[in-house]
Structure formats: C-alpha cells, structure tokens
Design brief:
With 464 residues, the chain is an alpha+beta fold. It is 40% helix and 14% strand. The chain is built from 15 helices and twelve strands. A six-stranded antiparallel sheet has the order 1-7-8-10-9-3. A two-stranded antiparallel ribbon has the order 2-4. The protein is globular, with a radius of gyration of 23 Å. Bound molecules: adenosine monophosphate and magnesium ion. Adenosine monophosphate (AMP) binds next to loops.
Length: 464
C-alpha cells in the first residue's frame, strides 16, 4: 500500500478540520514498533524513518463535538492528536494518526501531549483486540519524545502512531448538526460511506442505510466486547467511531473476577459505562447520531424521526442475538434454542455468584468431565446432551470461542512499569502472546493467572 502525506479529509468543508505544522520532538526513540502490522499492510521498507520524521510535516486536526458522560460539549476535536498520513488508496485505506503530538487549535487548556505509559497501554490493548479478532484501531508504533509531560508528576512523553479506517465519530456528526451545517453533514456522510461502507443498495435511502449499517456494526461490536469481559470505560459519543472499530482506549479494562456492574474508570462514578450498561449506552450514543442525521433523512422532521426510530429499534434485538450466540459458543453450544436466553442469563448469574474469573471460567469447563455436580453444571451438561454434536465437537467450538489470554490489568501495569525504567522485556512478551490468545499452548502459562490480592488493579486512570 502507498503511504501518502496528503489527507483525503482535507477535501471536506473547512469547518471540519484545521491544518497544522507538526512540531519536531527533542529526542525521538522508538519504544515499540509493530513490524508484523507494517508487513501485513505492505508498508514501504523505510516506513519507520518516513513516519518518525514527522516534525515539520503538515498535519490535520479534526473537529468534533461530543456527549461526555451525558453532558454535551459542542467544541471538542483533536486536542492532542493529528492526522499524519494516509495508507492505501481507492479500496481500503487507513488514517495514520499521531496521538500526543502537541497542541492543536482544539487543545483548549490541554498541552496536546501524552504520557509514555498511556500510549503503551493503548498499544497493548488495541493489539490484544486485534489478536482476539475484534474490530479495533491498530497501533503501529510508540515513540518516546525525550520530553517530559506534566501530569500528577513529571512523566515521559510519547506519541502513538494509530491506524484507523477513519476517525469519523458520532461526535463529528454532532459537531455539524449543532451548527446546522447540512451541506457539510451530507459531505461528511458521503465521505464516510465511500470510505467504509460502499454504496447503498438500489432504491434504498442512502443515509438511512448508512445509519442502519452503523447501528448494526455497533451492535456486533458491543456483543464482542462483552464476550471477552471488556469494559471500554469512556463510551462518550466522541469515542464511538462510525466504521465500527473500537477506539480510544483510555481507562478500559478486561475483567478478572466477573461482576456485571463492574467499572474500572476512575472518573466513572455513577457506573454509567459498567460492563452490563454498554449496550444501552451504545444505543444512547446511536440515538444521538440518529438525531444529528435527521436533516439527511427527510425534510419532514416527524417523518425523519420515524425513519430513525425504525433503525434504532433493530439495535437491541441484534445485540441480544449476537451476545447470546457468542456466549453459547463459549459454552460449546452450536445452535440457539428458545430457552437459551434464560440459560445464558443463568450462566452469568452463576459466574457472579461464584465470583468466577471471567476468562478462566470458560477455560475450566470440560464437556467430558463427570465430577462437576453444581446445579448449573448439570443444566449445562443436559443442554450439551440436547444437541447433535459430540462432546469433542463442543470442545473444539469452545477452544475457538474462549481466549486463554486477555490483557489482564496487572500484567499491563507490570509491563508499563518496567517500560518506564527502560526494561521492555515484559511489554514485548505480553504483546507477542496477545497476538495468539487462542493458542492452547498457553494453558498453564503464568500470564493466564488472575491477579492475587496485591496485584489486583481496581481502577484505571485516563493518564492522558
Ligand atoms: P479522550 O478522553 O482521549 O477521549 O479525549 C477527550 C477530548 O479531550 C478530546 O477532544 C481530546 O483531544 C482532548 N484531550 C485529551 N487530552 C488532552 C491533552 N493532553 N491536551 C489537549 N487536549 C486533550
Ligand atoms: Mg477520545
């Protein structure tokens, strides 16, 4: 794929972006580079030096708005990030985004910088997602800047090279809707469709179809997050991307001990984005998107609302179907029966009652074992006996549905701590194994062990 330092986004109306000159950093040093990703994308051999010499290059900061924890902010935007380049052409293309690259016209009171540990955290978790096969933005490299960043203490600064199918968010649509710029709204919708969705079927309202596709991708994405015990933490509308990739890994985490109402974010006091709230919050965000898109749907507002509602109503049924299907597969069950919604709910209740480790609960299940006699196990065994597939087939389905490895909080924390003092071994080891989380050879590895009481991380911080 070709690497270009022009931005297709710059062709959109100027209200959506500002260009800026990227400042060079004092002493850039690559901390981690994703050679496998570079290879998969067929990047030119000199990609590292080309990208890393970003100083002086023309960047582009995107404008967006957003509901943050329910409150609307009409003026956000890339405050500490900029589009640096685009990869590919025509068919598939990716933004190369530089996160932590310094102040932009949208920085408000922020410094535009990012800490090494926050950028490495995003690198680890996004690549863990890629390993799990869940749609995500990717991380190409983290480069320490050699400059301090001041948070609660002085920390090392860094930039992340992030790849995304595009950085258009729900908040990007809200930005135009609140300014009543309908022409720009159309251009934005057309841009996003051309880039990530293709043409609407003949005779179908193209913007309504776009809304339908976005809703469908989110329903699927949230089901996938929840099937690996993931809590995004900051599902604000500026952190929900239209193309359906997981984006903006801030205070996110994979659960160890299962609890449906678990949150990790130090700023999520009300539990707004708890594990089990994620579908409802995604639908809330999508409703904000639909509102922003109303002028594109029909001139008659009442009609536009009715059209949007029809699409929004599809979200929960699709989510529930995919959620159940994923959990049934984790339990070795191939085809959903009418009564399985209750069985999945009973399974989650059982996991919560027994304070099970989310990941290891499924790994410990054995369709052949005869020594497990809890009522839940009996129900499960009876359900397995009630399908045509053999226990061996169920075991195989479970093996491809249950990762052995997630990016456990305490392991991430350990890797970040070591990296801060220059020891990259734990980071490299973690990233390497997270590429193949379904590898049965990981059984028994220390990386699959839940944290003990001292190791447990109860909150994660934005650590911007
Ligand atoms: P986030 O919490 O990363 O989703 O960011 C929310 C908003 O705050 C976005 O508009 C960011 O660009 C902005 N922001 C976060 N950290 C900084 C920073 N250090 N400097 C400037 N803007 C920031
Ligand atoms: Mg964000």
């Amino acid at each position: 794929m070709s690497l270009s330092f022009t931005h297709s986004y710059a062709s959109l109306p100027p209200i959506l972006h500002r260009s800026l000159a990227l400042e060079p950093v004092a002493a850039p040093r690559t901390v981690i580079a994703n050679l496998a990703l570079a290879k998969a994308l067929n990047l030119p051999a000199n990609w590292q030096e080309t990208l890393l010499n970003f100083g002086g290059k023309q960047g582009l900061a995107m404008a967006y708005a957003g509901h943050q924890f329910g409150g609307f902010n009409a003026q956000l935007g890339d405050g500490r990030a900029a589009l640096l380049a685009e990869i590919g052409s025509g068919g598939e293309s990716f933004d190369v985004h530089l996160k932590g690259s310094g102040a932009t016209p949208f920085s408000r009171n922020g410094d535009g910088k990012a800490t090494l540990s926050a950028m490495l955290r995003e690198y680890i978790v996004s690549e863990a997602f890629a390993g799990l096969g869940i749609p995500t933005t990717r991380s190409l490299a983290v480069v320490a800047t050699g400059e301090p960043v001041y948070r609660e203490r002085a920390e090392q600064g860094a930039v992340l090279f992030r790849l995304a199918k595009s950085h258009v968010r729900v908040g990007t649509f809200q930005y135009l809707a609140v300014r009543k710029d309908i022409e720009a709204l159309k251009s934005l919708a057309d841009y996003e469709m051309a880039r990530n969705f293709g043409k609407a079927p003949e005779g179908v309202h193209k913007y309504l179809w776009l809304l339908e596709q976005v809703i469908s991708r989110q329903a699927s994405l949230i089901a996938q997050w929840m099937s690996v015990g993931f809590i995004h933490g900051v599902m604000n509308t500026d952190n929900m991307q239209l193309a359906g990739e997981t984006i903006d890994f801030g205070p996110c985490a994979f659960m160890d001990v299962f609890h449906p109402q678990k949150v990790f974010s130090s700023i999520d006091h009300g539990g707004r984005y708890a594990w089990d709230k994620q579908p409802v919050m995604a639908l809330w965000n999508l409703t904000r998107l639909a509102e922003a898109m109303l002028p594109l749907l029909d001139e008659d507002r009442a009609k536009a609302i009715a059209m949007a509602e029809t699409e929004l109503e599809k979200f929960l049924p699709q989510f529930e179907r995919e959620f159940e299907q994923r959990f049934l597969a984790k339990l070795g069950i191939f085809e959903r029966h009418e009564s399985d919604a209750d069985f999945v709910a009973a399974t989650l209740q059982h996991m919560a009652d027994t304070q099970s480790d989310f990941t290891n609960f499924f790994l410990a299940l054995n369709p052949d074992a005869t020594n497990e006699n809890s009522p839940w196990h009996k129900t499960w065994k009876a359900r397995l006996a009630d399908q045509p597939q053999t226990a061996a087939e169920a075991t195989m389905l479970m093996a491809r549905s249950n990762p052995l490895l997630i990016a456990r909080n305490h392991r991430v924390a350990e890797a970040l701590k070591a990296a801060e003092v220059g020891d990259l071994a734990p980071l490299e080891r973690l990233v390497a194994v997270l590429k193949h989380p379904f590898d049965q050879a990981l059984r028994g590895s220390d990386l699959t062990t839940p944290p003990n009481e001292q190791e447990e991380v109860r909150q994660t911080f934005c650590g911007t």
